[in-house]
Structure formats: structure tokens, C-alpha cells
């Protein structure tokens, strides 16, 4: 499990060929999708295919997440019943608007973990509405399980009644606000997808803009986009220095039998340590 957030690639959960191919992907996070890429008539089949794929977890080199359906869809309980099992590292929750939505889902996740004797999984909320943008900090800081947030530009623009353009003119405020709120909450932020698969130069420029805004990585929809995202979102000197500090202090805390600790007023636990360790291993 990489615990890095440079790239998060969505893989349709109803396509067994793509699920199998995902074993060779080098993205930091492979996210099996139950939402937008899966028609309503295919939801049940997708859950079953993902459940089967998770049994082959050791064949995947990336962190494995599953994107559930949205809170308002009413489908999340059924999603979680099928996918919360050994092999899953976390879930991406689309179209999160507020903290109560997260807390309701977290309660269900906890129940399943206890009944199935599983370790705690991560949660990554996706911010895709005006309400979600306004509430990003409170959402990002609402649970220790949350390790990152994702920016979903297309549904946001639809919510605002604005047409999509490559320069994301209508979403500039939202795109800039999300990584600031995420940073303040102590979690990573993953930028929105680049839709034009043929425009490689446009993707690279878009990644550079996201990096300058403070994003940790990029949501992607095709394997050809992985290398570019990794090149642009390579750890900075500041990130490397912080990772070194996290590893040093956390390891000292563990030796003292304490485990979780604080660094410069920030809570640091095993998840943060694994992320820092993975970053340093990447640099080496």
C-alpha cells in the first residue's frame, strides 16, 4: 500500500477486464467505481465483481479504494455491505455536501468493521457541489479516517449552472479553496480529472496549475495519464523534510510505547507515518 496521493485512477466496477488490468497499474490509488461509470442496471453486478477483485488484493500494487454511490442516492448501505471486507484500503464518497453525511456513513463502516473483524479503512470525500465547497474544511476535519479530499469539477459546474471549459474559469474559486481547506485540516487534496485524453500538453499544464494551487495529486481516467501526474506531483523539498520529521518523531514515540504523537500541534498516527515512509521510499 503506497499511501501516496499523486494519482487516483477510476476503474469501472462492472468491467471485469478493467478490474484485472488494474493489477498492473502504477497509480498510487486504484479506485474501483460504483458510481458514475456504472449504469443503474449494473450496480449489483459491479458490487459482486469488486468483491471478487478484493479477494485478489495481493495481486494489486496500488492502494485499493472503492468509490461508492452518493449519499443522496440511497445506495451506500448496499455498497458498503458488499465491499467492506479484507483487502480494501478505503472508500471515496462522491458528492459529499456536509458533515452529517460523512458521520452517517462512518457509523455504518464502523459497524461492518467490528462485525467482520477488520482494521479501520480510510475515507476520501469528493467535493462536487456549492454546499460541499463551503463546507470543505469541516468535512475534511470531521474524522480521523479522512486522509484526503477530491475535487469533482463537473458536478460542481452543473450545480452552479456553468458550462465546462478547459481553463475551468467557472470553478476557479472552488478549485483554489479546496486544497487550502484540506491543508488546514491536515489532509491531502486530489485535483479534478482532465477529460481530453488526446490533449497531453493540456493535461501536463493542468497538473502544474493544480500543483501550484496546493494539490497533492490528480484524479485520472486513463493509464496514459499516470506518468504525467507522477512527474508533476513529485514530492517537494518541503514535503520531504516534513516526511523525515514525521518518521523520526513517530518512530521515537513508538519506541516509548506511545504510538500516536503530535508534531508542531498536528496529530500524527500510523496512517501519517506510512504516508511519510512511502514518500521517502519514493524519493530514495
* The CATH class of the largest domain: Alpha Beta
Q: Over all CA atoms, what is the radius of gyration?
A: 18 Å
Q: What is the β-strand count?
A: 10
Q: Architecture of the largest domain, according to CATH?
A: Alpha-Beta Barrel
Can you characterise this structure?
This protein is of the alpha/beta class and 284 residues long. Helices cover 46% and strands 15% of the residues. It folds into two domains: 7-234, Phosphoenolpyruvate-binding domains (TIM Barrel); 236-284, no CATH class. It has twelve helices and ten strands.
Summarize the structure.
The chain has helices at residues 16-21, 43-54, 76-83, 99-116, 130-134, 136-140, 153-160, 172-185, 200-213, 226-232, 237-255, 270-283; strands at residues 7-12, 29-33, 63-67, 90-93, 122-127, 148-151, 188-191, 217-220, 261-263, 266-268. It is α/β, with parallel strands linked by helices. It has 2 domains: 7-234, TIM Barrel, CATH 3.20.20.60; 236-284, no CATH class.
Amino acid at each position: 500500500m503506497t499511501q501516496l496521493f499523486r494519482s487516483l485512477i477510476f476503474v469501472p466496477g462492472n468491467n471485469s477486464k478493467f478490474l484485472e488490468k488494474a493489477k498492473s497499474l502504477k497509480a498510487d490509488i486504484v479506485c474501483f467505481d460504483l458510481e458514475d461509470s456504472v449504469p443503474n442496471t449494473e450496480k449489483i453486478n459491479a458490487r459482486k465483481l469488486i468483491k471478487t477483485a478484493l479477494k485478489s488484493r495481493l495481486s494489486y500494487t496500488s492502494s485499493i479504494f472503492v468509490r461508492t454511490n452518493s449519499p443522496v442516492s440511497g445506495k451506500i448501505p448496499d455498497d458498503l455491505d458488499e465491499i467492506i471486507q479484507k483487502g480494501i484500503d478505503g472508500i471515496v464518497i462522491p458528492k459529499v455536501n456536509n458533515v452529517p453525511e460523512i458521520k452517517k456513513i462512518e457509523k455504518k463502516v464502523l459497524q461492518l468493521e467490528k462485525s467482520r473483524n477488520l482494521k479501520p479503512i480510510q475515507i476520501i470525500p469528493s467535493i462536487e457541489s456549492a454546499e460541499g465547497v463551503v463546507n470543505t474544511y469541516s468535512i475534511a476535519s470531521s474524522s480521523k479516517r479522512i486522509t484526503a479530499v477530491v475535487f469533482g469539477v463537473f458536478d460542481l459546474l452543473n450545480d452552479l449552472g456553468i458550462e465546462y471549459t478547459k481553463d475551468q474559469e467557472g470553478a476557479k474559486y472552488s478549485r483554489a479553496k479546496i486544497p487550502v481547506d484540506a491543508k488546514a485540516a491536515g489532509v491531502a487534496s486530489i485535483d479534478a480529472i482532465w477529460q481530453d485524453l488526446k490533449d497531453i500538453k493540456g493535461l501536463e499544464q493542468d497538473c502544474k496549475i493544480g500543483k501550484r494551487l496546493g494539490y497533492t495529486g490528480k484524479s485520472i481516467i486513463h493509464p496514459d495519464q499516470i506518468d504525467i501526474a507522477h512527474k508533476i506531483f513529485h514530492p517537494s523539498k518541503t514535503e520531504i523534510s516534513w516526511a523525515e520529521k514525521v518518521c523520526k518523531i513517530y518512530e521515537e514515540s513508538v519506541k516509548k510505547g506511545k504510538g500516536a504523537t503530535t508534531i508542531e500541534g498536528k496529530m500524527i498516527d500510523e496512517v501519517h507515518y506510512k504516508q511519510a515512509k512511502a514518500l521517502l521510499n519514493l524519493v530514495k
